[in-house]
Write a structure and sequence with these properties.
The protein has one domain. Helices cover 40% and strands 8% of the residues. It has 17 helices and eight strands. A hairpin with a 7-residue loop joins strand 7 and strand 8. Helix 8 runs parallel beside helix 10. The relative contact order is 0.13.
């Protein structure tokens, strides 16, 4: 390295241009020798792939050794998932902001990227909708009963082609696992918004069956991920027991584990409650008009009904899923031998490891380590109330317009309150009433859309997406609920010692 520096120093003095080029080359040479291996692989895309997003950390050793909290997202680009195209200013989704709030180490998204701001649905099950649509269109109808004619659906609501949940899960499980597994994972399933958009055009009794099947299918795939998470060779695996404190290993040996964070491995799932798509500005401005006697008014009532049915079905399935028994060897490909191998951990006497024997989690274990078989991860799901934020913001604006205040303080929130927006009906993309600013698309075409001067005053950015301010608040509320319901306080900004004391107090109560 010293010879390289000397070589560069002796030659770059001849000219200012050569000096600049020499300094750039010198920095690159130094970076090649000093950049941590894990950071190099992420930067070059080795084994990470385009779906992997790393959130920065000042400790390079943490990235090399793995650990931390990973967030894996399956779903559709709906109102708070952020759109990187179509003129939208929302570059980050609510799950990425959630990752920031929980201080996670990795954000892995399988959500398809959609261009443009017009409706382009991603469904939980493409085949369920496609088969239902084909069966409906294949039926003969009486021309004297035009209300039974649904042939217009093929043009206005064709079957989507983006990856559905089955395809997303398959793609994820086929991805090579990281060099070092995370300690814990939060699984997010963000579906239902566009499902209601399409299914609300179908006869209600037909759409009900599709809704029930889709929700059931979601929990079937959740269980697939749960069982794959038990195998240390799968990307779904989280090495919880490889990063616990020595005293926890001692408690495991003595069968004295407590039901608290840090001592129990948990398979965590977050499923946002679906926001009724018919309350969005895009429903009014972009919903196709069906041929009579079909009406958008009927479709609106269908959307509200189906959204409620979806949310109730998810709530019911969560209760059943959390009570599922541990996998049996004759019910799954996860064999007990695999389970034991995945959960073998070493523990020295009294849980003490000498300084000389300390090694990274995934390096060679102590030769005389005692193999242990840890309990199966408990299932825990959070049905996050996403509609609360949107509806509260809209009610707040309505009460202020009417100069009314209720007993909870609605209608009198200060300007700094995150639930206060000056405009909750028109999206920012339509521009301010006084003037409109032309923003050309990145593709260099003549397509443009208006933009408001102060996006922070708007609830909606486009007809179907929230502004960045609203998305941040949605994620912050989700993080608060996840911290308390999913035992994630350790990853929040709260003082660690204080959090652990609060656990003991809660348990005592």
């Amino acid at each position: 390295m010293r010879s390289v520096v000397g070589f560069m120093s002796a030659r770059v003095y001849r000219g200012r241009l050569k000096l600049i080029i020499g300094l750039v080359l010198l920095i690159n040479v130094i970076a090649m020798f000093t950049l941590p291996e894990r950071l190099s692989s992420v930067a070059l895309g080795d084994a990470a792939g385009p779906l992997l997003r790393w959130h920065g950390t000042d400790n390079a050793e943490t990235e090399v050794r793995g650990g931390g909290l990973r967030i894996v997202v399956f779903g559709a680009p709906d109102l708070a998932m952020g759109r990187e195209n179509g003129g939208s200013n929302t570059r980050k989704s609510w799950t990425e902001y959630l990752c920031d709030e929980l201080r996670c180490s990795t954000h892995h998204s399988l959500v398809p990227s959609i261009e443009g701001s017009r409706p382009d649905p991603v469904l939980l099950s493409n085949s369920a909708y496609k088969d239902t649509l084909e069966n409906l269109l294949a039926q003969e109808f009486d021309e004297k009963a035009p209300g039974l004619n649904y042939t217009y659906l093929a043009q206005q609501y064709p079957a989507p082609t983006y990856d559905d949940l089955d395809a997303q899960v398959t793609k994820f499980l086929e991805t090579p696992p990281p060099k070092n597994a995370p300690k814990e994972t939060v699984w997010v399933f963000n579906f239902g918004f566009w499902d209601a958009w399409l299914l609300s055009a179908l006869p209600r009794e037909v759409a009900e069956g599709v809704i029930d099947f889709m929700v059931l299918r979601m929990f079937q795939q959740i269980e697939v991920l749960y069982r794959n998470s038990l195998v240390d060779s799968s990307i779904a695996f989280s090495d919880f027991w490889g990063y616990v404190e020595p005293e926890v290993i001692e408690k495991l040996k003595d069968n004295q584990l407590r039901d608290v964070r840090g001592e129990r491995e948990t398979f965590r799932v977050i499923i946002p409650r679906v926001v009724d798509v018919s309350i969005t500005p895009g429903w009014e401005s972009m919903r196709p008009h069906p041929p009579p006697p079909h009406t958008r008014a009927v479709q609106m009532t269908n959307a509200a009904y189906l959204t409620n049915r979806w949310n109730e079905a998810v709530e019911s399935h969560i209760v059943e899923w959390e009570k599922l028994p541990n996998p049996e060897t004759n019910e799954t490909v996860i064999m007990e031998s695999d389970r034991a191998e995945a959960r073998k951990r070493d523990a020295l006497p009294n849980g003490v490891q000498s300084e000389g024997s300390k090694k990274p989690q995934n390096e060679e274990r102590v030769a005389d380590a005692e193999p242990l078989l840890a309990p199966f991860p408990r299932r825990k799901a959070l049905h996050y109330d996403a509609p609360y934020f949107v509806l509260e913001a809209m009610v707040e604006r309505q009460l202020r317009n009417a100069d009314i205040t209720d007993e909870t303080g609605r209608g009198s929130r200060p300007p700094s309150d995150p639930l206060r927006f000056d405009e909750v009906w028109r999206p920012c993309s339509e521009g301010d009433l006084e003037s409109k600013q032309r923003i050309f698309s990145d593709r260099g075409t003549d397509n443009w859309q208006a933009a408001c001067a102060s996006p922070e005053n708007y609830l909606w950015e486009t007809g179907f997406t929230l502004t960045d301010k609203a998305t941040r608040e949605l994620a912050r509320l989700a993080a608060e609920e996840a911290n308390s319901r999913l035992y994630l306080e350790e990853h929040s900004n709260v003082d660690m010692a204080a959090v652990k004391r609060s656990w003991r107090i809660n348990l005592a109560l």
